[in-house]
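Title: Comparing notes on inverse folding

I've been comparing how different people in this forum approach sequence design from structure. To keep things fair, I'm posting one structure and asking everyone to reply with a full sequence. Here's the target:
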């Protein structure tokens, strides 16, 4: 975020992506940390050495999750990555972070399923019975097919 001339917050950058199948099994706080790592990596060139910045999240437990005595080796690696940056994490409830919350629920990221009631059938194509009979007869007389 950046402040405009009236002191209002203005978003500088949005980032979003789908979770990979294995990432969907992560605990929620790990998914949030992964999202933060992904976003920081995308804008790394702009943030490193730029001074302190704030990462807003709608997941309050991120502020304390990293202080847990029982964190995975993967999270330890992510924390090492985060240590390169000068930032703090601030909680901002989803209801106040409307645009980012909406981006995380993009309908085009939902599973693509067809509605059977909306599918129209234009033509049904099936092999003719004479073709099936010809194939059966050919197999019966073919030495390699036996």
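Reply #1:
Here's my take.
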């Amino acid at each position: 975020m950046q402040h405009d001339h009236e002191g209002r917050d203005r978003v500088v950058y949005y980032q979003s992506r789908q979770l990979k199948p294995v990432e969907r099994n992560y605990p929620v706080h790990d998914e949030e940390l992964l999202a933060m790592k992904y976003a920081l990596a995308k804008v790394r060139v702009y943030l490193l050495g730029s001074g302190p910045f704030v990462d807003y999240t709608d997941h309050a437990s991120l502020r304390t999750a990293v202080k847990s005595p029982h964190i995975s080796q993967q999270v330890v690696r992510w924390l090492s990555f985060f240590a390169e940056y000068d930032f703090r994490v601030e909680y901002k409830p989803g209801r106040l972070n409307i645009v980012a919350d909406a981006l995380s629920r993009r309908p085009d990221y939902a599973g693509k399923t067809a509605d059977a009631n909306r599918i129209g059938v234009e033509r049904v194509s099936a092999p003719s019975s004479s073709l099936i009979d010809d194939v059966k007869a050919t197999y019966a007389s073919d030495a390699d097919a036996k």
